[in-house]
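## retry 2 of 3
previous attempt timed out at serialization; input unchanged, resubmitting
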Amino acid sequence: MSSNIKVIENYLRMLVEECKKVKSVGMYMVKVLGYEAYSKIDGADKLFINAVSDDAVRKLVEDAYTEYVKRNEEYERYFYFQILPLFFNEKEIDELQQLLIETGKIEDEEKRDAVRLEWLKKKGEEVIHVDGTPYMRAMFVAMKCVEEPWNIAYYIIINALRRMMR
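## retry succeeded, writing output
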């Protein structure tokens, strides 16, 4: 009985640590994606956004702008490789599986990962509709990481356990 409790404690500890990581990655990605979106806006549009945006939105964009230079490659890789695919539909999962097979032939690991990351980033830029509201997929996922890190952490751990069981 005691060993079962230890196993449960270990899994709960893993879940708590994963939640912290998911939330941190989500907050980072919201800032990065917000800055990237804001930087693509030019001239009059930017003036309009600054004029009508509330202080919280403007502060978020300014914070993202100042923190953007502190790119965190580990967080971005974790987001695109571990978290974003959790939000794919079956067709996209099949596309990802096909990409993994095709890129598996590339011997240079760095180049193989770069091709996969580029594909995932394109998927992240796609617009999805959630309850009738359009979102850039990566931004929606990043917001979910901040709002519900336990849910995402749970699926990351379950997927890792499934891979270990194969």
